[in-house]
Amino acid sequence: METPTPCLDEETDPELDLTGELQALRPFDTYNRLLQQNTHPLQWENPRPTGRYNLVVIGGGTAGLVTAAGAAGLGAKVALVESRLMGGDCLNVGCVPSKALIRCARAAADVRAASRFGVRIDGGVTVDFPGVMRRMRRLRAKISHHDSAARFRELGVDVFIGKARFVSRDAVEVRGARLEFARACIATGGRPAAPPVPGLEESGYLTNETVFSLVELPPRLAVLGAGPVGCEMAQAFARLGSKVTLIESEKQILSKENPDAADIVRRALSRDDVRIICGGKAAQVSHGNGTKIIALQCDGEHQQIEVDEILVAAGRTPNVEELDLGRAGVAHDRHGVTVNDYLRTSNPQIYAAGDVCFKYKFTHTADALARIVIQNALFFGRAKASALTVPWCTYTDPEIAHVGLTEHEARQRGIDVRTFAKPLSEVDRPMLDGEEEGLLKVHVRNGGDTILGATLVARHAGEMISEITLAMVAGAGLKTLGRTIHPYPTQAEVFRKVADDYQRTRLRPWMKRLFTRFLSWRRR
Predict the structure, then answer these.
(1) Cα separation of 74 and 76, whole Å?
(2) 276-309, pLDDT tens digit by residue?
(3) What are phi and psi of 13, to 5 degrees?
(4) Is residue 224 within a helix (H) or strand (E), and if so which, with residue range?
(5) What's the pTM value of the predicted model, to 2 decimals?
């Protein structure tokens, strides 16, 4: 029988904070033990600082890891400091576990819908929720090697496990060790913020930092916030068997998305038996007898919802409190560290990247910002964050992917915009796949084919949106998409069809009359 590893507690490691992200280590089974060994090894010995670093990176999430690895790979002397789990939100409590959960939920939904394709499933569908979560923990632990302390040490990075705080404008302290730097990068990310609802704290709630530690499926789940995380988790848990109520204070779910696109997702969630309450505000939460009661105000009316768990998916708070930024002369506010377009803070020796400073809080954006920091901090670069073309995706089923400007944003900037839309029901492959409920909207500058932005709703929208993103980055317009041959039948044909619609608008009546006369002459 395997000897159990000592339980993680503050006596084992004074720097180990069992709140927040480190809840990912529960239950402390074989897979989470491997995750901990990779991302927060308890027996880790911090190196002895020797001289000044080219770059000290604070935070071992995506932005910090990419910055540290890239700088070290280019020959810089680099220190990386992390007090919690390396890999940050993405690996431990964000992208990786959520997509593993979503995949299992989609499998359950596909089995239930098999009869639409002439496939009979007798006996119903049973979801092994503990098995679903074990699969997630196994895959997360396997992936964690890429973000491990040992791997980054092999890359030539001095990895320090512990809390960093600035002690001057050019130095930080970690467990009594002073790390002096020529440049530093703050990449400490953020954490979920709970709304100030009376009784919520006392009743207890889940966030993305704790929901993936569940080992039993909540029979009844309320999700506060219908943004990307709220919608993804509401649908996933409903498909896995929870009775889910999704509560949103705005009048629309996914309020930052195109209303037509958001409405497609709303209908999909409803089909998965998610109860959606828009315009609803939690006024109070109480608890007793193992249940939680949410008192709601909705359009002037009051109602109560009784649930077993509450998942809060509304808002983020930057992780800046323990850095002692004032001693470094780094300005910050409630949104995070203040940076200019070059990602430089008010201290010219210090930069920032990722969720702690940028409005687009995505893993791929953190990666892109890290590359800007490397250029600008180490090589006198002038790369600008505002020059990035940022796509994003909400991983509901169907997915919503977006890049660039919306129609509203373009008009706010005084840009005359024209929109070309195509429902997936007019494309053969989505019809054959039974996935025709979706659409593509592409916004171009009126009078030309310059792509300003696009929104796509499709089962694999996140995979497909890169074609539009590449076109925008390369300066290729809709005409180029129209000249691009797409394999038939594929869902990506929707891009060519939209381009064909644009091309037809270029054929003026007088041009058609001229062509008609010319072709009539050619028949002689």
Answers:
(1) 6
(2) 999 988 999 999 888 999 999 988 788 999 999 9
(3) -145, 105
(4) strand 220-224
(5) 0.93
